[in-house]
């Protein structure tokens, strides 16, 4: 018997997986596709779609390894915190976003160095097709280069350049986002449609880490506030980490099956996550084309993501 | 599966998935069973679940860089899987050494009944397992992509991003070591039909 035949016999009894065994992996892929589709209307940021999908920041940093885990409100005395106006109540989306803009403008923070890494940790969950309910949340970590580095994909510098050069008007902001993150295909983004503008802005809306980007984020919040149909979700919302948050959304178009929400902390105005929610009742059982085959009710949460930590660290794989 | 039909459409599926991301699931349906079984043979049944999912997620995220002139995505996917498997090479080597040392394959426990006579057959693979554990990661990738994934030499070159000549030299080196471990003449020349792939 020749050597290759012997190699082929080794572990040849390994069974082929059945469909049920492969279903969770397929679901993870469809989750990614769903978020990819949402982003296709807007931008493609970095290598990790969840990074943009979460659209959130909750670490505020003043040094290389300083991070604040807002999951337990573990604030640090040396962290720069937005000077939120305690007098502002979330009565309307416009009021709340104006308060968030002012908080962003007040952020002070150190600038990262090119040889540092941008560390993110997030948590998220998507609906399980078998149960129709959100599955067990999973956490993800990632490291992005701050400055250019051979063999690595960066994100932070691109984002930083974008938010420090934003125009004031929503249409101009959408154009700037598209220029910074050109879509790989010609999916049309109509800057006259509030839902498209909302998606574009959501993809780059975060709690700022530095003072310069804070000014840009303030423009994003004010642009959101100017959108027709922008509103606060009128009921209690918790993010993927279990924190009570304020959800801001824009009225979906009649054909839209889903609407999207930006989640902010009510006291600090920090952007902490996002959700995809069913906009109106529908049934679609086509397993080939439907993202989530089944019957769904308005308000069903299909996907939720939250940022746990964002900060700068000195080395890849280093955690704060 | 009608492989010819599937292969013809891979590049088109990837191209269309740029605008309609959910279409990428078609590639999962076509190749996930093969990738899963390959991963199970290298790292175990349990690890194969995550590795298969991670392979397709990585492929999905990098699909805009896929060379659409390549109609068959199978080598690309195996290349991604091999890269992910390579990150767990200590786990792989540990299991191979355990088989070499004890004659029992820890990876096969999940799919082989302990009372089954096939367990005894595992001990016959002990020298081979020792040889595989002793290969460099690159040589092991080439040998197992040929033997377990049934990739041709050009497909292995495409999967691993290495020249065809490097595939041949790595395979020859790996096979010499395997033959030596099996007690055969390591100088045995690979037959012409294999070289011609």
TrEMBL record, chain A:
Q: Does the keyword Transmembrane helix apply?
A: yes
* Transmembrane regions: 49-71
Q: Region Disordered: start and end of each range? A: 128-148
Q: Write out the entry's keywords from A to Z.
A: Membrane, Transmembrane, Transmembrane helix
Q: Which NCBIfam families match?
A: CU044_5270_fam
Tell me the protein's name: CU044_5270 family protein
Species name: Streptomyces polyasparticus
From TrEMBL, chain B:
- Gene3D superfamilies assigned: 1.10.1740.10, Winged helix-like DNA-binding domain superfamily/Winged helix DNA-binding domain
Residues of the signal sequence? Answer: none
Q: Which PANTHER family match?
A: RNA POLYMERASE ECF-TYPE SIGMA FACTO (PTHR43133), RNA POLYMERASE SIGMA FACTOR HI_1459-RELATED (PTHR43133:SF8)
What's this protein's family per the entry? Belongs to the sigma-70 factor family. ECF subfamily.
Domain RNA polymerase sigma-70 region: from-to ranges: 27-91
Recorded protein name is RNA polymerase sigma factor
SUPFAM superfamilies tied to this protein:
Sigma2 domain of RNA polymerase sigma factors, Sigma3 and sigma4 domains of RNA polymerase sigma factors
InterPro entries in the record, alphabetically? RNA_pol_sigma-70-like, RNA_pol_sigma-70_dom, RNA_pol_sigma70_r2, RNA_pol_sigma70_r4_t2, RNA_pol_sigma_r2, RNA_pol_sigma_r3/r4-like, WH-like_DNA-bd_sf
Claim: DNA-binding is one of the keywords in the record:
yes
* Organism this protein belongs to: Streptomyces polyasparticus
Entry's Pfam families? Sigma70_r2, Sigma70_r4_2
- Per UniProt, which keywords does this protein have? DNA-binding, Sigma factor, Transcription, Transcription regulation
Q: Which residues form the RNA polymerase sigma factor 70 region 4 type domain?
A: 128-177
């Amino acid at each position: 018997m020749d050597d290759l035949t012997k190699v082929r016999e080794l572990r040849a009894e390994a069974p082929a997986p059945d469909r049920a065994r492969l279903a969770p992996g397929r679901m993870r892929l469809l989750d990614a596709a769903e978020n990819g589709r949402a982003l296709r209307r807007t931008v493609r940021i970095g290598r990790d779609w969840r990074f943009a999908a979460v659209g959130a920041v909750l670490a505020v940093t003043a040094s290389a390894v300083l991070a604040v885990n807002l999951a337990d409100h573990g604030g640090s005395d040396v962290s720069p915190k937005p000077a939120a106006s305690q007098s502002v109540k979330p009565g309307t989306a416009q009021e709340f976003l104006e308060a968030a803009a002012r908080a962003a403008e007040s952020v002070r923070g150190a600038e990262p160095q090119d040889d540092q890494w941008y560390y993110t940790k997030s948590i998220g969950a998507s609906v399980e097709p078998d149960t129709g309910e959100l599955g067990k949340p999973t956490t993800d970590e990632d490291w992005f280069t701050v400055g250019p580095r051979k063999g690595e994909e960066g994100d932070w510098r691109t984002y930083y350049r974008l938010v420090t050069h934003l125009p004031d008007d929503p249409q101009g902001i959408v154009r700037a986002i598209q220029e910074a993150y050109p879509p790989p295909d010609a999916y049309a983004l109509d800057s006259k449609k509030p839902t498209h503008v909302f998606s574009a802005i959501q993809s780059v809306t975060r709690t700022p880490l530095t003072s310069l980007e804070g000014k840009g984020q303030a423009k994003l919040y004010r642009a959101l506030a100017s959108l027709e149909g922008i509103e606060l979700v009128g009921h209690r919302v918790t993010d993927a980490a279990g924190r009570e948050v304020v959800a801001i959304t824009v009225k979906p178009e009649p054909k839209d099956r889903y609407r999207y929400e930006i989640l902010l902390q009510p006291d600090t105005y920090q952007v902490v996550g996002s959700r995809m929610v069913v906009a109106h009742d529908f049934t679609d059982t086509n397993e080939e084309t439907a993202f989530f085959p089944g019957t769904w009710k308005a308000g069903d949460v299909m996907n939720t993501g939250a940022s746990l930590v964002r900060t700068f660290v000195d080395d890849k794989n280093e955690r704060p | 599966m009608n492989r010819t039909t599937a292969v013809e459409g891979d590049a088109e599926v990837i191209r269309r998935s740029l605008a309609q991301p959910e279409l990428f699931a078609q590639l999962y349906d076509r190749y996930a069973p093969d990738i899963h079984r390959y991963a199970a043979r290298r790292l175990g049944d349990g690890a194969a679940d995550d590795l298969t999912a991670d392979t397709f997620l990585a492929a999905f995220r990098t699909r805009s860089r896929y060379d659409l002139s390549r109609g068959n995505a199978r080598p690309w996917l195996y290349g991604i899987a091999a890269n992910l498997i390579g990150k767990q090479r200590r786990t792989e080597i540990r299991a191979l050494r355990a088989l070499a040392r004890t004659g029992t394959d820890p990876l096969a426990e999940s799919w082989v009944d302990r009372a089954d006579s096939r367990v005894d057959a595992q001990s016959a693979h002990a020298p081979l397992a020792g040889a595989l554990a002793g290969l460099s990661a690159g040589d092991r990738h080439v040998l197992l992509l040929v033997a377990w994934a049934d990739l041709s030499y050009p497909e292995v070159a495409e999967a691993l991003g290495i020249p065809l000549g490097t595939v041949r030299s790595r395979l020859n080196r790996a096979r010499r070591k395997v033959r030596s471990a099996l007690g055969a003449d390591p100088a045995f020349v690979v037959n012409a039909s294999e070289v011609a792939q």
